[in-house]
Amino acid sequence: MAKRDYYEVLGVNRDASDEDIKKSYRKLAMKFHPDRNPDNPRAEEHFKEAKEAYEVLADPKRRPAYDSYGHAGVENMGAGGAGAGAGFANFADAFGDIFGDIFNGSRGGRSQVFRGADLRYNLEIALEQAAHGFETKIRIPTMAACTTCGGSGARAGSKQQSCPTCHGAGQVRMTQGFFSIQQTCPRCHGTGKIVPNPCATCSGVGRVKHQKTLAVKIPAGVDEGDRVRLSGEGESGVNGGPAGDLYVQVHIKPHAVFQRDHDDLHCEMPVSFATAALGGEIDIPTLDGSARIKVPTETQSGKTFRLRGKGIKGVRSQTHGDLFCHVVVETPVNLTGRQEELLREFEAISQNDAARHNPRAKSWLEKVKEFFEQ
Description:
alpha+beta
């Protein structure tokens, strides 16, 4: 039977890159590997066909010959031909990746060193603390090197030994059919060492649970969700790896008076009916003390007063934000008889010239009338 075109076998275009050819081959090899298809006799044929196509197209010297002359162009460039060494290297590289996926193996070095995990600590603070910054102490649970064994995992008087399974290499060689591959040693997990007499404190792990107290400086101007990084204060590494980091995530408590909007602050300012009508002065709080606002006559509910620079200076800001005070005209409650009498008299007087005293109400009533007359 005539051989199929190698590009057709791998399912790639003739101008496919080396990386595309490698990816396609890996996909086919994973699909048709005999160990994955023990009940499919044709799987091995497809596997060998894909392997042959990849060996040629991955070779920088054999591929041009194939492109020019087809199968005849590479018949005399077999395993001992020009470029065979490079082709085998490419094939071994690709197939090593494949077996790493099939058997969950590792291609790491002799001793696998891992960085410690990062940790997160949620810190709830008041708005005033966020505005001015402060220092505090926190206690966090973490994994730290065992002080009994110094992190070795071995009991006092003993020490780690070379792994007898991999002889200290951290990897073992496995034979799968006509291929030989390496994977992480299942006994020492790639470290190359075992602990015959484990430490009683850490059970041979070399790390123990630990509570530590840290000082944290919260900068002025932090906002909800901001993080403060403490480098190297996360969990300790494995096999001498570096420690992770600790991230302190800020959460700001709801405030009784202010609502924050980035660097600006907002608050409601209750104003009595008389003050809104006649004008006056009222004191309002700020994060830096109190401030006095002059309320002009005939102030309506919803009017906003802006106090420049009375907001918060954010961590990445050059200036302070502003404070916005929103007027809420308060309707009096629990009226005395005399108060009710005066208000009724006031209402009667106002109704004699409603257009003058209540222009917004008159305008609204006119709009309602027009609506119903349409």
